[in-house]
Specification:
The complex is a heterodimer of chains A (101) and B (136). With 101 residues, chain A is mainly α. Helices cover 92% and strands 0% of the residues of chain A. Chain B has helices spanning 6-15, 23-48, 52-77, 84-117, 125-135. The chains are: A mainly alpha (101), B mainly alpha (136).
Chain lengths: 101, 136
Amino acid sequence: MIEWFAIIVGAILFFLMIPMFYRIWVGPTAYDRILAVNAIGTKTAVLLVIIGTLFERVDMFVDFAIAYALLNFLASVVVSRYLNRTASLKEMEEKAKGAKA
Amino acid sequence: MEAFGISSVLAETVASSAEDLGLLQILGMLLGILGLVFFLGSAVGMIRFPDFYTRMHAVGKGDTLSTMLMLIGFGLLTMEDYSIVSGLVFIKIMAIVLFIYITSPTSTHVLMKAAFEDNHMPLDEKDLKKRKGEKK
């Protein structure tokens, strides 16, 4: 019973990730893509716990889930800081060009 | 004292494969289904909203809440007995829940701040009318 529940919930979770993949594919800006990647990564931590429930080794898979959640948060923050930095650099370049002209 | 040993816990886990749903298991299943419903809302918002900020409104909240609900639900599902081992696993899962409770709004905030400082303005009524005209 519990195994079938875990299988069905995992399958539904995977199929609900498809809209996020769609947003990664067509997303107009880079921020949409990072947002979708962040959501998928958060859900992958849940999926790891579900897989651990299936294998009846939750004590092992929980550690993977912790590591994955940490890496996901770090990646999202680092990429957004990088985009912020490049945006401010672009602004500075434009200001420098305006000052020259 | 035998009930707290690891080997007896493993034997019980293998033996109790089906048909003994306790109160905790039923509660865990309800929480998991509730989390799926919230994630469905988040996925629909990801497709149908027109703007980055509105998408972030859908995903930032729905994703956090659904992740927390599903993790708590599966943590309750795995507590088949009240032994120390399953209690430790449940505490670890609650640590993930606490971590996501802190970090997911933080990453949403950082992303939104980065987008706003990149002069990526939200849509106003003019843009919406223009977009409707393009579709027709």
